[in-house]
Amino acid sequence: MTEAYQRVQAARQKGRPTSMYYLTQIFTDFLEMHGDRRFADDPAIVGGIARLAGKPVTVIGIEKGVDTQEKIARNFGSAHPEGYRKALRLMKQSEKFGRPVICLIDTSGAYCGIGAEERGQGLAIAENLMAMMGLRVPVISLVIGEGGSGGALALGVADRVWMLENAVYSVISPEGAASIVWKDAAKAAEASEALKLTASDLYGFGVVERVFSEEDGDFAALCEKLREALAIEFTMLSALPTEELVQLRYDKFRRIGGDER
Amino acid sequence: MLSRKLFKKPKNRLEGEVDSAVMQAEDRRVACPECKAIVPQATLQAQAYVCPRCGALHAMSARERILWLVDEGSFHELDADLTPIDRLGFPSYAGKLSKAQEESGEQEGVLTGTATIQGHPFALFSMNPAFIMGSMGAIVGEKITRLFEYAAEKRLPVVGYAVSGGARIQEGIFSLMQMAKTSGAVLRHSEAGLLYVVVLTHPTTGGVVASFAMEADVILAEPKALIGFAGPRVIEQTMRQKLPQGFQRAEFLMTKGFVDRIVPRNAQKQELAQLLALHQRGAMA
């Protein structure tokens, strides 16, 4: 058992708070908004309007569900294209009304199904990446559990990307990596180590700006800290001229994986 | 290496050494993956890598694709010196990389540069299907980003040939982040009012489909190309059912509304030239 794999298991732990918990704990007056106005409402992604320390914000979260019935209804947090399109719709709306956006990420990945492919899963993610790159309001993304590949990144192109201590963020699941690289899904622990997917790894790489302690499992205390941190950060980001905000976001991602030799 | 050279040494030194590259191109024969016909490499090369017997499209390397596509001598490569970096120290990645470099004769899985088709200038990228499955490492993303930035600055349209198995696992999060980075560069090029045409070739999947491959103004595809976010095997495992015939093929994507046109290989030069001409500055006046 590697340290990285322990984090993976903690991130997937039954009973770990999901997006809805943070939405109700950190924010007030949450009003959920449904549907992508194109095809359907995807329960794997929840979104709406709320208040953060009194100010209106748009909140979007990938929701895995708590009990079995809810998990099935929410497809275990694996979104279809409609989920990403709903998120995009709400983000564009936040731009219109000048509201900052908070995205909560917790997914093993975008859903790999027939319907998802037929309705353009790849395109839906691509459109979100492009739109978020140009979004004219501040965005903060927080990885609360699993940050699984493109399905996570589709809500992760933000001015600040934060992670919880036990959250992980990776290009592919450890099982997927193990089965592709070593033809053996059982080597997930080794793959977790090799992928360097823990919050502290990603902080070291400059991919995330901040890692939050989980307060030894006191998630209510964590939410207090998050509320405060989000409010301070949004005050700062909102003070930037829009052009500068968008330029800084571009520059941040522009630097990752460049040729710094 | 030394011993191989010794064996190859000609007996008469006036004979000189045989140019092995020429020898290989002329002598090499390949089996068509579709109809199993044995075709001389030279014949294939002369016919845009289309099987003369069954019409199946053979894979083309990034450089073969460019040399076939653009006006002779017009290709000027950009960032040829950028080489991949094993940032994670991922097990056995270094060896895999040098093997891919040796076999392809290229530094990375994508070539970028400028060229002309029928005199129309444009910036282009061409991906290599054989280079670690055409996967997108950080330097692939970096080269594509630089290309879009260069094209925006020089006010050039971009034509890209996509082929990819997706993000490159061995570069972990650095690979994933290229999806965001390239999308940002495509957005800026687009906001400058410039044309981007992509040609999706077999296969284009994963993180490349979920980023720059689907962000073009005009999306063309080669016949029967497999195009999708998830690979067919992953979907079959997830859904626990067989996929319908033709699922995720270019023709299927066009019916579903995700591809503008399916263009046979021998029509691509002409169509790209036509698209470039239609979007030339002043064309609307």
Task: Please estimate the helix content of chain A.
Answer: 40-55%
SS field, number of helical segments of chain B: 10
Using the alpha-carbon principal axes, give the shape of chain A: globular
What's the overall average pLDDT of chain A, rounded? 96
- Tally of strands of chain B: 10
The span between the termini of chain A is 35 Å
Class of secondary structure makeup of chain B: alpha/beta
Instruction: Find the CATH topology of the largest domain in chain B.
Output: 2-enoyl-CoA Hydratase, Chain A, domain 1
Structural class, from helix and strand content of chain A?
alpha/beta
Number of domains of chain B: 2
Instruction: Give start-end ranges of low-pLDDT stretches of chain B.
Output: none
Largest sheet of chain B: 8 strands, mixed
CATH architecture type of the largest domain in chain B: Alpha-Beta Complex
The biggest beta sheet of chain A reads:
8 strands, mixed
Number of helices of chain A: 12
The CATH C-level name of the largest domain in chain B is: Alpha Beta
What's the assembly state of these chains?
heterodimer
